Amino acid sequence: MFAFSTAFIMVVLAEMGDKTQLLAMAFATKYPWKKVMFGILVATILNHFVAIAAGIYLHSFIPKDIVELVASIAFIVFGLWILKDDELGNEAEKNHFSIFWTVAIAFFLAEMGDKTQLATVALSAQIGADMLSILVGTTLGMLVADGLGILLGATLHKYVPDRVIKKFASLIFILFGAVGILHAMNIINLY
């Protein structure tokens, strides 16, 4: 029970105001909340499993700066994609699997090298044998924190015009991408 509760509390607190919580909010303004939450669930399970099983060794194969750089570029692409009204966006809304994959891939990339993933690696290295409790705790913690972001995003969608939300969400993605690139290139220090 210690591993589960520690993992849960750690992730809920670390995720508050994090880029993935803002990502959940942005996706909830565009897509149905259930599809967003399912994408988050699958991405989180996969990401945190990787963190628990192999995250300790990941830095020896792929430098954290490279992972952060790729994720940051993806954020800028997602930000620009939000602004573009084309058939691809309409197809994603018609095809339920496209929404799921868009959310799942964005979350998986956003979590790579993120503080919640690194905290999961550290916790699993510290606690060791109770991997399932850590995975369940970190996943539920992520769902609770991002669920709050989804609730806020869905509420905003009811009261704020779509074009304003799109511009704001795009700006957030591009801003996080730009800051991530600067950090990956050691131009700015975030920690």
Automatic annotation (TrEMBL):
Keywords: Membrane, Transmembrane, Transmembrane helix. It is found in: Membrane. It comes from the Bacteria. It holds the Pfam family GDT1. The keyword Transcription does not apply. It is a multi-pass membrane protein. InterPro entries: GDT1-like (IPR001727). One of its GO terms (cellular component) is membrane. The chain crosses the membrane at residues 36-59, 66-83, 95-113, 134-156, 168-188. One of its GO terms (molecular function) is metal ion transmembrane transporter activity. The keyword Metal-binding does not apply. Belongs to the GDT1 family. PANTHER family: TRANSMEMBRANE PROTEIN 165, TRANSMEMBRANE PROTEIN HTP-1 RELATED. This is GDT1 family protein. It comes from Megamonas funiformis. The lineage of its organism: Bacteria, Bacillati, Bacillota, Negativicutes, Selenomonadales.
